[in-house]
Structure formats: C-alpha cells, structure tokens
Write a structure and sequence with these properties.
By secondary structure, the protein is α/β, with parallel strands linked by helices. The strands form 3 sheets. Strands 3, 4, 5, 6, 7, 14 and 15 form a 7-stranded mixed beta sheet that branches. Helix 3 packs across helix 4 and helix 3 packs across helix 9.
C-alpha cells in the first residue's frame, strides 16, 4: 500500500500529530498534487480550533499549497492540465458552480466555497486532492516556498489593492506590516501608489522603506494615525491588514473625501465607526475576501515581474506544530512555510 505523510490534529485545539494516509486516486474533475510547500496562515487557527461550522477531525489544515500535479482524474487533461505541471491552491479551493454568485461569475464568494482544510484535507501533507478549478499555474520564476503564501496572503493583499478605487499616484496606506502587510507595501509601491506604511515602533521605519514605502507612520507616536495621514493629504485607500479593530478604527478619519477602507485583517471585535464619519466625507468601508485561481495566477505573475517575494521561514512537515505555534505567537518573519522534502 502506497502511503503519504500528513500533520493532523485529532481534537479541537489539539497538538499536531504525524499520520500516514493511503495515497488516493483523484476523481473526475480533480487532481492529486505532490505538495512541495505549504504556508501556515493565521486562518488555519479557525480550522484547528473548530471555530467554523462543519470542521471534522482528524483535521489536516493548510490552504497555501504549492506543488506539482501527480495524477489526473477524468476530464482534467481536456482542460489543459498534465502531470508535472506546477500549481498552487489557496483559500479558493474550488466553487460549486451553480449558486447565484457563481452564476454571476463571482466565484470567491461562492455559497459553498471549498476551502482546503475545511472542505477537504489541506496542504499540511505530502499529497492533496483538489478540484481542477482551484488550480493556479506557478510561473517558473517563483519557488514553491514563495508561491504557497502567494495563494492566500499574496492574492488577498494584491486583489485588495487592485480592486480598490485608488489609482497610480494616489496616497495609499497599508495598516500593519506583518504577514499580509509586508506584501501589501511591496504591491502598493509596485502599482505606482504613494505608499504609506503604518506599524508600531519607530524602529520599523528603515525596514518599510526597503519594502518600497515612501512614508512611515508610527502608530505609537504622539501624533494620531488619522492626523498623520491627513498631514500627507489624506489616504485615497487604507488597506487594513492588521487584525486589530481598534487600530483599523483609528485610521478611518485619515481617509480623504471619497476614500476607501479595505479590511482584510480579521478581528471578531466590532469596528468603532460612526455613520457620521462615513456620510460627511462620502467614505466607503468594505471587506475583501481572497481571490480565485485566476487571481492567484495574476498575483504570481505580477510578483515575478516586479521581483516581489514573501519573507518566509521554512521548516519541514515534521515540525508543523512548531511552525503553527510560531505563527500564532506573532514571532514569524513573516510567513511560516512547511516543506516536504
């Protein structure tokens, strides 16, 4: 019997344990991927702790998957894929194809979105079976350890900016310079925005300038964040990558008239925004989900073209628990990535 290794948790909030599974054959419309790398995302905690409905155990998380197609199910070759193709699978792990959003072409908000680690075993494993519509082709210029994080952290920040209202030359602020924000700053600068990075501590100023930021705002300084943004003319768009509702709220009054707050950092606490703050200046607040497989391909192509890469720490699959704990603690700089070799 051919087997492969996984890192799984057997109960909500439990520790990661190694296990072996029988190698499956992909069904119609699916492929089996030999995983080379898988990023560890903060959203994996939703699955490990069973914070979302429908989580079953044992649970194998991981939705920043990069590898090569090892086997094809019926009907896949006709869709342009073959064994050996380099592919990534992210938060978008497939869609139902028949709900209203899918019929309108808005697949990322599919009512039955198939997220790896939720709808099927994720990438903390040597093998993954995924639907063909989840596949994004990896460009030759990207290593698997870079492509994996691009499939979630990368596409979320890239899409959050390119789907926004800002245009080249506009003032755009990235709130938070962590696992999402360090990519957001690079994308914003490459898109031609006058880029502001907002984080805690004066010592980060040189770092964000190396990422491409034109300005730095220390959120712990005496000058409030909103006032500092207004001194620069007001932000056309604030990309809120920090999962901190208080910090997000503090940036709202830094928006220019008709400015847009795009929230991608998750926090269960409510935002403290009044209708008056929005109405008086025509401001917009919107949440932004990740992106489809095509969006992931676009993200990777843009990253390869502009030399943008995630900053990663790689560890072997056997140390998945250590990588997960390091991610949760905030100590990672900036994305933890599991490797299978």
């Amino acid at each position: 019997m051919n087997t492969y290794r996984v890192a799984q948790v057997t109960a909500a909030g439990g520790a990661f344990e190694p296990a072996e599974r029988e190698v499956p054959q992909p069904g119609p419309g699916h492929v089996r991927i030999a995983v080379e790398a898988c990023g560890v995302c903060h959203s994996d905690a939703f699955f490990v702790t069973a914070a979302l409905p429908g989580i079953t155990f044992p649970e194998v998380p991981g939705h920043e998957i990069a590898g090569r197609i090892a086997a094809l199910g019926e009907g896949v070759r006709e869709r342009g894929w073959q064994a050996g193709d380099r592919v990534a699978v992210g938060w978008f792990g497939g869609s139902c194809g028949y709900c209203r959003p899918c019929r309108q072409g808005d697949f990322i908000v599919c009512a039955r979105l198939k997220v790896p680690g939720w709808a099927y075993d994720g990438g903390f494993a040597e093998q993954v079976v995924a639907p063909v519509d989840a596949l994004a082709r990896i460009p030759d210029a990207l290593a698997a350890s870079d492509a994996g994080p691009m499939a979630c952290a990368g596409v979320t920040t890239y899409n959050g900016l390119r789907r926004g209202s800002a245009r080249p030359g506009d003032l755009v602020a990235v709130l938070g310079v962590g696992g999402l924000g360090h990519l957001g700053v690079q994308y914003a600068a490459a898109m031609g925005f006058e880029t502001v990075a907002i984080a805690r501590g004066a010592e980060k100023a040189d770092f964000v300038k190396r990422l491409g930021a034109h300005h730095y705002i220390d959120s712990t300084a005496r000058t409030p964040v909103a006032e500092a943004l207004q001194s620069l003319g007001g932000a056309r768009l604030v990309l809120a990558t920090a999962g901190d509702s208080g910090a997000i709220t503090a940036a709202v009054d830094g928006l220019a008239p008709r400015g847009e707050l795009v929230v991608i950092g998750a926090d269960p606490q409510a935002l403290g925004i009044s209708p008056v703050q929005l109405i008086a200046h025509g401001r917009v607040v919107r949440g932004h989900p990740s992106g489809t497989a095509q969006d992931v391909e676009d993200t990777m192509a843009f990253s390869a073209l502009h030399g943008i890469r995630p900053m990663t720490e790689t560890v072997p699959l056997a140390r998945a628990g250590e990588a997960y704990d390091r991610m949760l603690s905030g100590a990672a700089r900036f994305r933890m990535v599991l490797t299978m070799s």
